[in-house]
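Proteins fold reproducibly. Look at a sample protein:
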Amino acid sequence: MPDEVRTLPALTKEGFEAMLAESMPQVTKSGMRIDAMDHGSCRVRVSPDLHMARPGGTLSGPTMFAMADLALYGAVLSMIGPVPLAVTSHMTINFLRKPALKDLIAEARVLRLGKKLAYGEILLHSDGEADPVAHATGAYAIPGHRPAPGGAGG
């Protein structure tokens, strides 16, 4: 079996966190944090607090949607580098079951990266549980010129 060639992320976890702190400080204030990033993937985590809860003892849909959006943003930037003006062009989320009020994890992966559009999927699950609580798909519009793929920038 040949050795697998691993592509380094074009934007590292640390680079993404720095970019978010500068251009989107509301992310840090939301309590969401970046668990991991690799080329084409990003994992986001949030520890819920009372402003994220809804009646019935569960996390709110807007919290889960925001996590999915952030995770896909990170996955896309891990492939194209720091492009703050890449924006969500479409996102759909399906809520599958009620999440517990414990850490929620969103794991995104890019399925297709084109010159102007990236498409991916996101699975959300409660920490320690394999079954997803939500599934999302989305697309990001990529403005202007992109840097060459491959570097470890950020």
The radius of gyration is 15 Å.
